[in-house]
Amino acid sequence: MSSPLLSVSGLTKRYRRGVKIIAAVDDVSFHIETGETLALAGPSGSGKSTIARLVLRLVEPDAGRIRFEGEDFLALGGAALRSRRARLQMVFQDPLAAFNPRATVARVLDDPLRVHGIASRQERPRRIAALLERVGLTPDLAPRAIHEISGGQRQRVAIARAIATKPSLIVFDEAVSALDLSVRGQILRLLLDLQREERIAYLFISHDLGVISAIAHRVVILDAGTIAESGNARAVIDAPQSAIGKALVAATPRLNRTRP
Amino acid sequence: MNPLRRFLRVPEARAGVVILAALLAMALSASLFFPGDPQAIAGPALLPPFKDWSLPLGTDRLGRDVLAELFHGARTSLAVGIAAAAAALVIGAIIGTLAGFAGGLIDELLMRTTDAFQTVPSFLLALAFVSVVGPSLGVVVAAIALGAWTGPARVARAEVLSIRERDFVAGARVTGMHPLEIAFREILPNALPPVLALSSVIVAAAILTEAALSFLGLGDPNRVTWGGMIAEGRAVLRTAPFLSIIPGIALVLTVLGVYLAGEGVVETTAVRRSLS
Ligand SMILES: Nc1ncnc2c1ncn2[C@@H]1O[C@H](COP(=O)(O)OP(=O)(O)OP(=O)(O)O)[C@@H](O)[C@H]1O
Ligand SMILES: [Mg+2]
Asked: Residues whose CB is under 5 A from ligand 2 (ion)?
């Protein structure tokens, strides 16, 4: 049998708040299979973003283990970690904050291709155009500054940046929350297409169970840093067992219970 | 409206630009109008200004042309002021960025060094440096930069500390960028505006420091400097005060011009910030 793409066990991160020490993430374990979407849901402050940052090694855990693609991901450092980052990408909530304010679309997409030596300098403009087309944008957007394009376009550029290095897992932290409804639907469809074609796994963070039911296979519901319940997304949303799960379902009025 | 037009609408900026343009014209045209050695004897000694129109500002104790010296002095003042300020800004930005981005021990080490440099008055530092190494243009520039980089370093560090928490830096890490590239290509350019806002003050201070060093005889002996001219005139202050007053006025106008232009830049960017 093969091991899962990502497995997280006993993950713990504590922060000091005044004199008290609180566990933002407390003994959390889960796994993601290749090509699968796992959603993390939970109220504000339940530790979703902290888990995303831990998985991406943007912050270091106090305890726990992370295995990714068969390797001890926490044991990596320096150049080895930087090269593995090609396989594990992230899309942030605020697409404006996620890019260097001075960057152009082309530069944003050039960076991963250059850093990981994916394409030669001459070849990169063509690759950038192909990436833009892959996420439903026109290549003439390339010379534009990041702040000159719309929020929806920006989030597509963020997705293009994430898939530039052919990752096996992308973490989305509230990546569609800032978008209006019609744009959100388009982006979710794009993500489903990408997953079907490239077999990319998603760790999809959202507090919106409507979005989660549209995209996730399984869901983990967090409460104050611990896992309240987890399971098949449809099953959990149809019949939540935990108090926090029930509250989240009740707070989502028009739950679309059909998967596209 | 483009930034230059907006800049030129600020009255201070316009005054500053006029003064600096005149100064720059003087510096650039010095060898055109006054070819040859400005320190060569050009006429009778101590000729007062406006007496002989071939020597409009008169001559000094040795019979050197004061106007020629003034033009060549502008060149030294500007060159030293700009070079020293540029060096101080570059050193300060690099050290501040490294300290703010690396954090921990490196930050502690760099900032204690900055403290150490800041506690010594910068003029004393320059004085000591030049007297040990010996006066030449490069040494004077280095000596002034040595006392001026701490301000830019502090400002750059503070700016970097806030920028490094932003998502786009996390994004650059996720991309797999090398930390040095993140520090100098992603963060530093965004930290620069408040650092560059210090440049006018630093240029003005550098020009004054250079003049003071020259006044004390620690300037480059092969170049005419305004500070050196003031020192020269000191011996005949009662009989020929113009020898000290003319370069003194030039110095005051220059510092004023740099300061006003700097104010204009601050004003322009402040207006832009409040508009956006
Ligand atoms: N850098 C930090 N320093 C101190 N406390 C932190 C830090 N980051 C997160 N926390 C705390 O950890 C807890 C979890 O935060 P986290 O951002 O992971 O929540 P979240 O589930 O993403 O919430 P939201 O839905 O509002 O984004 C919160 O109580 C938060 O205050
Ligand atoms: Mg969050």
From this structure: A 49
